Amino acid sequence: MESRSLGRQGLVVSEIGLGCMGMSEFYGQGDAAESVAVIHRALDAGVTLLDTADMYGPFTNEMLVGEAVAGRRDGVVVATKFGNERAPDGARLGINGRPEYVRSACEASLTRLGLDHIDLYYQHRVDRSVPIEDTIGAMAELVARGKVRYIGLSEASAATIRRAHAVHPISALQTEYSLWSRECEDEVLPTVRELGIGFVSYSPLGRGFLTGRFSGGAELAENDFRRRDPRFVGDNLEHNLAIVAAVEELASAKGCTPAQLALAWVLSRGEDVVPIPGTKRLSYLDDNLGAAGIALGDDDLALLEARIPKGVTAGDRYADMSSIDS
User: Fold this and answer.
1) Strand ranges in the chain using DSSP code E only, listed in sequence order
2) Which of 27, 56, 121, 150 is catalytic?
3) pLDDT of 79-91, one tens digit each?
4) Among 101, 121, 102, 125, which Cα is nearest to 113's?
5) Are 128 and 325 in contact (CB under 8 A)?
6) Confidence of residue 226 (pLDDT cuts 50, 70, 90)
7) Phi and psi for 12 in degrees, rounded to 5?
């Protein structure tokens, strides 16, 4: 497992991280013991970046990650997020970027994680009712107090990123990026590269769709949010299955799995891009990490571009895109 730098402030992580969200919510029933085993296997394999958020569970995912890293803190970069405010019963309370909330959310996350500092702290979604300068100012105070080492943004527009970076250096921008989600290439990716900000790609496997394991909603648990994902239903599903077929065909020719091909493509986007595929199963983890050994040449990339061109995917990324800063 090689390393990559996120930003210019000294943050270095493994080239592939681990998204922990699905261990606690959104993708059907999880198993805490197996999830901890997955995290331990990832750490043993050289993964150093673990990604969570306070709203996953809600709250329980941070506790799970905290349990998994207890006694193994050295060298582990724990990233968590605030801003998607939820009640203990799971009710969604909206997006909150008020400075006082930033401070209280950080303290709560530190307690759940069992840590004395957060390595990478993201604003999960931009609160358009609060000037970004105020939110980032509060995050900068956390850095000054030693509560946070590096700060990041998630799903922020190019204009917001510029304003935030002017207040305090942003080390990482996290946004969905994969073979079927390339919207960030228009403005966001060029902006973070201009400013020297690292890019963390979440859902690099298209929420599992690009692995070829799904043909529709029937395989998904009743509480799996992908049953309502616009790309997984109706005519969009039928259209998008052709993308998966192309990935499967090209992966077979390359001698790797579809998941490995999709992740290798994200890794090929640049040394400043770090994918964080999520899984709660040991077998899928091993498959994903195998992508680090897949080299895509110019001919491979040209063929992928020809078969899966930018913009080919049908359907929005979320059923409700209103929370995405644009």
Assistant:
1) 3-6, 11-14, 18-19, 49-51, 77-82, 84-86, 92-95, 118-123, 148-154, 172-176, 198-202, 273-275
2) 56
3) 999 999 999 999 9
4) 121
5) yes
6) confident
7) -125, 130
The DSSP result for 115-153, as a single string, is -S-EEEEEESS--TTS-HHHHHHHHHHHHHTTSEEEEEE
d(CA 154, CA 135): 13
Tokens standing for residue 55: 């709203």
Compute the distance between CA of residue 277 and CA of residue 20 in angstroms, rounded to an integer: 9
Q: Is 64 helix (H, G, I), strand (E, B) or coil?
A: helix
β-bridge mates for residue 6, sequence order: 11
The pair of structure tokens assigned to 223 is: 């509480």
pTM: 0.96
CA angle 34, 36, 39 (to 5 degrees): 110
Distance CA 320, CA 137 (A): 29
Residue 222: CB partners within 8 Å, gap ≥ 6? none
User: CA-to-CA distance for 320 and 304, rounded, in angstroms?
Assistant: 29
> Could you report the per-residue pLDDT of 111-162, keeping only the tens digit for each?
999 999 999 999 999 999 999 999 999 999 999 999 999 999 999 999 999 9
Distance (Å, whole) CA 276 – CA 40:
16
pLDDT the model gives residue 214: 80
**Is 56 tagged catalytic?**
yes
Q: Which amino acid is at 257?
A: T
HSE-up (13 A, CA, CB side) for residue 270: 16
pLDDT in the model for residue 26: 76
Question: Is it the case that residue 216 has pLDDT exceeding 80?
Answer: no
Strands 84-86, 77-82: pairing kind? unpaired
Rounded CA separation 155/164 (Å): 13
